[in-house]
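Input structure tokens:
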């Protein structure tokens, strides 16, 4: 059950990050640079294949000017 929850959370996070990134009309490269993470990590996050640690979620939220909770809920 825990694995399913983690996968679900990663999937939600990926969709939300992509949605907010597209609202800014940024490429993945732009968001990765602004958040201080690698593009490959961002690709995995947006695909729902990677559940980042809380500090990475905070970096993404800060770059996107949203609350971290907005990235983890739909």
């Amino acid at each position: 059950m825990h694995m399913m929850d983690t996968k679900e959370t990663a999937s939600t996070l990926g969709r939300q990050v992509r949605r907010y990134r597209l609202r800014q009309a940024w490429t993945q490269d732009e968001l990765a640079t602004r958040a201080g993470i690698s593009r490959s990590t961002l690709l995995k996050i947006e695909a729902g294949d990677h559940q980042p640690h809380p500090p990475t979620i905070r970096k993404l939220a800060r770059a996107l000017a949203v609350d971290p909770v907005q990235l983890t809920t739909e």
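Residues 2-66 form a domain with the 434 Repressor (Amino-terminal Domain) fold (CATH 1.10.260.40). The chain has five helices and no strands.
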